Amino acid sequence: MTTAPSDPVAAVGVASQVVLSVDAMGGDKGPATVVAGLARFLADEPTARVILHGPEDQLTPMLAKRRIAGQVTVRHAKDIVAMKDKPSHVLRHGKDTSMWSAIEAVRNAEASVCISCGNTGALMAISMLRLRKADGVNRPAIACLWPSRNPAGFNIMLDAGADIRADQDDLLTYALMGASYARNGMGIVRPRVGLLNVGVEEHKGRAELKVAHELIGRAAPKGDFDYVGFVEGGDLPSARVDVIVTDGFTGNVALKTGEGTANLISELLKQAFNNSILSKFAALLAMTSLGRLRKRIDPRRVNGGVFLGLNKTVVKSHGGADATGVAAALHLAYRLGKSGFSDKLAARVATAVALAQDAHQEGVRPKTDAEDEQEQ
Amino acid sequence: MTTAPSDPVAAVGVASQVVLSVDAMGGDKGPATVVAGLARFLADEPTARVILHGPEDQLTPMLAKRRIAGQVTVRHAKDIVAMKDKPSHVLRHGKDTSMWSAIEAVRNAEASVCISCGNTGALMAISMLRLRKADGVNRPAIACLWPSRNPAGFNIMLDAGADIRADQDDLLTYALMGASYARNGMGIVRPRVGLLNVGVEEHKGRAELKVAHELIGRAAPKGDFDYVGFVEGGDLPSARVDVIVTDGFTGNVALKTGEGTANLISELLKQAFNNSILSKFAALLAMTSLGRLRKRIDPRRVNGGVFLGLNKTVVKSHGGADATGVAAALHLAYRLGKSGFSDKLAARVATAVALAQDAHQEGVRPKTDAEDEQEQ
């Protein structure tokens, strides 16, 4: 580890100081984009401090160019986790990577939140190994924000892709963790939780969803949230729910589908406004309103998945994030760091485990339903 | 069955005549919306003929009001399949429903394509019972159209929700059926097929997806399509693929997520243009371009899932479809009826079965991969 003698992080070691640990490498657009995002973030939060992990010879000139060297300490890491690297390979050979170093700084309590744009599977694997799952959590989840019709402007969806599987107990844990994130991270006092399915009817869906439906319903009163039952893909932006629970395979497909749809429409809008001299003139006149709209539906604005169910907080930025997206992820990490979210979540997870055990003792079991096959 | 003596369908019994069998009941908006959609469709296709199934006393005045009684025969059915009805219940007690009657008319070769806005599970269950699965098909699928960057303007996705499960062999069958639909229904000579996953890397995803990946890759040369490998949710509107294959749970969530996102953006656009007098003026100026855009991203325009893998063709319109949506489904059904799609697909499915058997004989098996759990 290489730290400059005049380490700005060490110098400003006050209790209220939020320090972020940022992996500079591994994003699709390279470290210059991460540093550009850092500069935008620090312009808004000048008291924040950052430990930036990656090859020192590359990063130091970038920080100088952006004039943020005073707020950012470079921690040298010679290796990079590539998008194609298998998590198992990274676990064995990745100790000199910027990603590993970034997580290590959170583990050592030098920083309160870790941020990376890199390989999600590797980031989760290292996080699980070094930060450990919170007591009673079998599968940690990634929670993402979804533009919605709610006054807050966002709903929370989890798991967005930490694990391709989730059984009924995992789905219950996700419900409680998601509710906690909504309460502590977004200020929603009594979050409404829904379970994603192919229909809102109780007889539809996979067997584990029917059991999770009962488990979550029973846990709601003690868990300080309202359970609205099954929701569908069309409810992700709905105002009737705040937290949508699903397995990581479905959640990942839904997330990328929503982003892809928004990007397509955004492209088509641009084309529409370039169609004629009249529509160009119209675009000029509409600029303010469309700017507001663009800001609202811009996927970069809601960039940053949060790993829930670990002993520390890790924010996964989208691999293809540009400087705006990176800055959004940093802002999210900063808010979470300031709120002391990790500790609050740990308490909530302990409750979740107790609730799950309660439910099991009360004998919630899958219904025998020979008609499952037909009832889609 | 009640048919008027002057049955227009019987009267125009020429070979090139396309007759559609339409379930008037079971949609969220009731039969008046279906009849309104019929009127729009028949204005474009005046030589088409329709058998309309439902309560005669309700339907006859509606047809008279729309002045389409000359092209539409009412076939009386007193019962209605409700959205909440379990498919198993409908199979036992649904013989007097409009949905059953609509499928029966296709089975009896009185009409070439059946269309319904009703309960998807019930429609699939009755279709499977009365029309039978095509030889060698284990799970029929619903194929839907997705707005895309391709010159055709659409990609095909299946299964959009016929069955919540699909194993590796089903996914191979979907690939071949989807390619056939793209070729025969949309004129794409050599369709490009992709398999939906949480990443494009070969080591990612569920075990059955890894096997399907190999099976589809091997089948591509003989199946007259190109296999582009794994695709992600963001590729649903992509120009690098024409047919996206997935299980019906994931496909249904993706479909509803895409629709929900498009609807949200459309609402926000309307709000944006009502924000100020300037933007209202802008909207007036931009009307032509935005109209084109609205038409392109309007979910009603791509309304109509096609059941693939049965011996006859069934088009499932969205339950919430309005008259525009119903008309779109009818146009789709009419194109398929004209093209003789059912027979062409049956031939293709036979090939699919042979190809799957070939692949199995060549010994494609799931890889043992202890790292599955970690590799998300």
Explain this structure to me?
2 copies of one chain form a homodimer. Helix content of chain A is 47%, strand content 14%. By secondary structure, chain A is an alpha/beta fold. Chain A has 2 domains: 1-131, Isopropylmalate Dehydrogenase (3-Layer(aba) Sandwich), CATH 3.40.718.10; 137-302 and 324-364, Isopropylmalate Dehydrogenase (3-Layer(aba) Sandwich). Chain A has an 11-stranded mixed sheet, with helices on both faces. The model of chain A is unreliable at 1-15 and 364-376 (pLDDT under 50). Chains A and B meet through helix 4, helix 6, helix 9 and helix 10 of A and helix 4, helix 6, helix 9 and helix 10 of B.
CATH topology of the largest domain in chain A: Isopropylmalate Dehydrogenase
Percent range of helical residues of chain A = 40-55%
Instruction: Tell me the total number of β-strands of chain A.
Output: 11
Q: What's the number of domains of chain A? A: 2
Shape of chain A: globular
Based on the coordinates given, report the CATH architecture of the largest domain in chain A: 3-Layer(aba) Sandwich
Largest interface: A-B, 77 and 77 residues
Distance between the termini of chain A: 56 Å
H-E string of chain A: HEHEHEHHEHEEHEHEEHHEEHH
Structural class of chain A: alpha/beta
